[in-house]
Amino acid sequence: MAEYNRVSECVGLITLRNPPVNALSAAVRQGIVDTVQRALSDPNVKSVVICGQNGIFCGGADIKEFGSNMTGPPLIPMIHAIESANKPVVAAIEGSALGGGLELALGCHYRIAHSKARLGLPEVSLGLLPAAGGSQLLPRLIGVPAALNLITTGRHVTAAEALQLGIVDQVTDHNTVDAAVKFALSVAGRSLDPRRISTHPCPQQPDLDAFFEEVMQKVRQSARGAIAPIACVQAVRAAATLPYAQGMERERELMATLFTSGQARALQYCFFAERAVGRWRMPSGARWDTSKPRPVHKAAVIGLGTMGRGITVALAQTGLSVIAVETQEKQLMEAKQAISAMLERGAKRRGVAPALDGVIYSQNIQAVADVDLVIEAVFEDIALKTKVFQQLSAVCKPGTLLCTNTSALDVDQLASETPNPELVVGMHFFAPAHVMKLLEVVYGPRSSPQAVATAMQLGKKMGKASVAVGNCRGFVGNRMLKPYIEEAFFLLEEGATPELVDQALEEFGFPMGVFRMSDLSGLDVGWRVRKGDGLVEPGTASGRSARIRQGRRYSPLGDLLCEEGRFGQKTGRGWYQYDKPGSRVARSDPWLHSFLGAYRAQHGLVARRIDHQEVLERCLYALINEGFHILDDGIAAGPEDIDVIYVSGYGWPRHRGGPMFYANMVGLAKVLERLEHYQQLHPEVPHLQPSSLLRRLVASGSPPIHKWGEAIKKLHSQL
Ligand SMILES: CCCCCCCCCCCCC/C=C/C(=O)SCCNC(=O)CCNC(=O)[C@H](O)C(C)(C)COP(=O)(O)OP(=O)(O)OC[C@H]1O[C@@H](n2cnc3c(N)ncnc32)[C@H](O)[C@@H]1OP(=O)(O)O
């Protein structure tokens, strides 16, 4: 829908109306075609302004339409008609001009932006390229290197940067539409030839071949298997080397391959999944839209180790006052220095003043008496955390929300140690907490909907992908990680190497394979947990029985490495070797290979050839299978919750949509068949036993992922 008005007597004002972001749906495109025609044929109209309602120009093509038969006028001829108009057309950009929205603006002869506006071509993050002429117009307007940067990263630029790059002609702090109308009046009657970007030659780029070769190499490396960034480079190359019409043809061809690709589907699924998780619901029936969050003005963090420091920074950067508590003076001083440095670095990057005054440091827990919310981040020890929770319950004003950053302990147990368990939730951050996007908000059976709503809202304020999940061992992310890691250990026993397993996972798209990741996070972390579970035994026993513990297959490989003092990067040795402790470059370690050989001999294991497919099937399907258990248990409300957790916190390649989306793409029947196959070969591995939900979904015809919620409800009601 587009509304037409005549303003200032001779300016045709076209307003896009399609809340919330004025996406270019079929109706909006039809509206633009009709209103542009009306303005151009009205002899009283000397110039035209296009704007969007409610302070947003246009969020781009309507992504929801991509999954259906697209009807209505196509974008490209519409944009060409605007560019070739014989009256000046000015885009008045408020809020956002993204994707097709910016392409529409590039078709206009002038662009005026509000100082708070953001512009960009983010199609690459949806598995696409700017295929309404953006890949051909932007390089002509701002040059090849700058256009490549914007198009291959999809980043949004501020109005100030857009002005500097030459994307917009003017930036205003005042009413943008008024400024655009005034501007439109001032340019009425001027020649429009120089303003038609499609007629511009692309600015010359020296050493074109070498330049694009280097760019392509870099993009391939960072794309980790994603195809859209590569197509974006190819499209911009076409702009740099071909006449406009041929470049447009190349843009269309490249888009045709991307448009129907699984990667585009996965990335568009992620876009909507990230928004869907905000509409959380609990098994009790409590929901995001019926639960009002409490206001949080002042927060506290207890315990200033690595996690506590990151959480303090994340909170302070949202503008909250934070009381940071650490009982030991030396640790408090060190933490203060580290937090200030992090705040300064962050502020420099964002071009704002550091929120140093927002943090008050204290050794005394009494200092948190008047805060609205506390996040406890002390050492992972239930007795210590219980003591802290009891102190907090005594000190804090009534109604203060008590959150724990535990990654492994029982949130319900902690809640039960306080007089007000309804005020307790888990806020599981990921290290480094001020950088990592993911936040698991963990509710127990007694957590109040208001407590969950407050933690979710705070997470959103901190810019986190916040996902509400039920309380269970490992919550969602770590619970699914356990079978994944165990399968990797078993593969080593059977003949694989850390290099082979990591290579398979990295080629799949993970930034790091399981062993490199384990070296980074520290092998001692899992060792401590396994010791706590009574699984670790002295490493002298041999044979199969030594590898069955608590009735199931167990690999002591990680424990044996820890006994050797090999904790990963921090000790300079782990699954790989490093030049020195703390160094990051993993090198293959001959010691490890002979250790594996000796281990297999000791246990009577015969190494066999393992290929990448087996690595992927065993590690990933075991992880996915656990995801189905989680859905069946009601710990995650839907597959989107699991997928957002994995994409934003565990390095799952976004272009593969998340583990549950991936299972849906592979086919549930295939996942089930492979799990059954491996389960037959390894009957002593319970996590390869297909989940009953997976079986039931397959039996009910493998519904598509957006119908799983319905199917799960139906299957549960039949039980
Ligand atoms: C057979 C082969 C054929 C091949 C040829 C095919 C031809 C096809 C040619 C098509 C050419 C198209 C070229 C153009 C492509 C595009 O434009 S792709 C879209 C690019 N735009 C974006 O990626 C922007 C996405 N949106 C955002 O980044 C943000 O929403 C925002 C605009 C910055 C606003 O942010 P915020 O205020 O935080 O709101 P949100 O919560 O994010 O969004 C609010 C709701 O709006 C929904 N939404 C947002 N953008 C869109 C969109 N573009 N389309 C549809 N819906 C959108 C969003 O989902 C939210 O709704 P809910 O999910 O219900 O919460």
TrEMBL record:
Q: Which domain of life is it from?
A: Eukaryota
The 3-hydroxyacyl-CoA dehydrogenase NAD binding domain covers 298-471
Per the record, what is one GO cellular component? peroxisome
As for subcellular location, the record says: Peroxisome
Any one of the GO BP annotations: fatty acid beta-oxidation
Give the Enzyme Commission number.
1.1.1.35, 4.2.1.17, 5.3.3.8
Where the record annotates domain 3-hydroxyacyl-CoA dehydrogenase C-terminal, the positions are 474-578, 615-701
Q: How does it assemble?
A: Monomer.
Q: What is this protein called?
A: Peroxisomal bifunctional enzyme
Species source reads: Pogonophryne albipinna
